[in-house]
Amino acid sequence: MVRFLGLSLLIVVTSGVTVWFLERGNVDTVGASGLIFGYFGYVVVRGLFDRHLIDTLIGVVMAASFAYLLTVAVPGTPGVSWLGHLGGLIGGLVGAWLFRDRRPRPAKDTHAGGGTAPTTRAALQPRPDNPRADLHKELGDLGLL
Fold it and tell me: Is the pLDDT of residue 112 over 60?
């Protein structure tokens, strides 16, 4: 919940500040589409920053499914505050980086010949307290991991 509220606040601020400073003075801007574009940007790149396969795949599917959204975020679309959309999108991308998982990476073991030890399936399993542990187990059982 804290991540969601922090992300929402970041997106609202970046979208609002972008419109405030860069939009022409005679244009009225209203709506929550900047927030929607921010969430879109967050979902699309979150998996890349967190390095989670399932989140990356969800981001790819979302990007492909809603690519048409980006067509209204370009200058020249009449009646649309593209700056609000752009600011929200940037806020979502920044939020994905700021709110990424910061778990410490395991130390690499070296074997006698130097380099890294061969990766085993057990080494790839998440810790039991990981919220995605059950998902990883199911995907492993299906042979997808």
Answer: no
